[in-house]
Amino acid sequence: MISKILVPTDGSKAAQKAALYAVDLAKQLNATVIALSIIDKRSLTGETVPAGNTSRHLIEPIEDYLREAAEGYTAEIKKLCNKNGVQSKTVITAGHPVEAIVKEALRAKVNLIIMGSHGKSALAAAVLGSVTYGVIHKDTKIPVLIVRR
Questions:
Q1: 65, 100, 125, 149: which one has the fewest Cβ atoms less than 10 Å from its Cβ?
Q2: Would you call 83 exposed, middle or buried from its count of C-beta atoms within 10 A (0-12, 13-18, 19+)?
Q3: Backbone angles phi, psi at 58, to 5 degrees
Q4: Predicted structure pTM score
């Protein structure tokens, strides 16, 4: 039985489509949705974001900027869940996306991971480091449902 669904999001169209699918499935199954966004630590270099690119128009550390974006991505899913009467929880963490997704799935004891995919070939995914490709090839027994963009 599916009672908890993990939905990793990076705010992309593919992730948004996966979230819609997850919320619809959760509604049908009376399951809980866990919206997860990861701040990729590999992208942090100690730099700042130019003032014009931030919502507050100040210079702020890149990690703060990425956290703000992550909060926005998970808030969208939470809003969608609330609109559809689905219980939800948001989680924001930092680290390598593949590792963080699997770690959260195990920690939260989810029954299903629903992710978006851009539909890259296996070769492109291996070269470009696709997060979806990494999660489905991790040694875990949690089913992963891929929603194509």
A1: 149
A2: exposed
A3: -130, 165
A4: 0.83
